[in-house]
Design brief:
Radius of gyration: 14 Å
CATH architecture: 4-Layer Sandwich
Order of helices and strands: EHEEEEHEEEEEE
CATH topology: Purple Acid Phosphatase, chain A, domain 2
Structural class: mainly beta
Oligomer: single chain
Helix content: 10-25%
Distance between the termini: 17 Å
Number of strands: 11
């Protein structure tokens, strides 16, 4: 199973569409973790599972998503309701409630991926306004019976090896 995960594009349509089109045929699912600042009818979000962020207004997107893809349960939220800039504890409780294998979130604009209590947590960073990394970022998560990997890319599609991680499955 492969998932493209993007967040915090903050109104960028051309760049967002370019990234999605680059990987659309290589992945099983696409998630946007909020703050797209676009409407659900925007061409850039065609075929994308999107949650609402704190900069998304209206009711176009749900606050969170639970999606099962290829036997992997994803919990997706922007993160602002879970205080992710300070702690991951409330987010982890919600992920546990949904029995998520992978939890995707944004809000902090900081690209990271880590395992805790056998749940993979992914923040793809921001393609427009990155923090703690000089380039805009997004990622692809690959999940199979032996390994889970998260490969980070800059907006030009170039791999960022220092952010990329892999975890052996138990």
């Amino acid at each position: 199973m492969k998932a493209l995960i993007i967040s915090d594009s903050h109104g960028w349509t051309h760049e967002l569409k370019t990234i999605i089109d680059r990987h659309r045929n290589q992945v099983d699912v696409i998630f946007h973790c909020g703050d797209s600042e676009l409407s659900e009818n925007d061409e850039a979000l065609k075929g994308v599972n999107v949650v609402r962020g704190n900069c998304d207004f209206g009711d176009d997107f749900p606050e969170e998503l639970i999606e099962s893809v290829g036997g992997v349960t994803f919990f997706v939220a922007h993160g602002h309701h879970y205080n992710v800039k300070m702690t991951y504890v409330p987010l982890s409780y919600r992920a546990e409630e949904h029995q998520a294998n992978v939890t995707c979130f944004g809000h902090s604009h900081v690209a990271t991926a880590f395992m805790e209590n056998e749940v993979l947590y992914i923040n793809p960073g921001s393609i427009r306004l990155p923090r703690q990394h000089p380039q805009g970022t997004y990622c692809i998560c690959e999940y199979d019976e032996k390994e889970i990997s998260v490969t980070f890319f800059n907006t030009h599609g170039e791999n960022i090896p220092e952010l990329t991680v892999a975890f052996k499955r138990k």
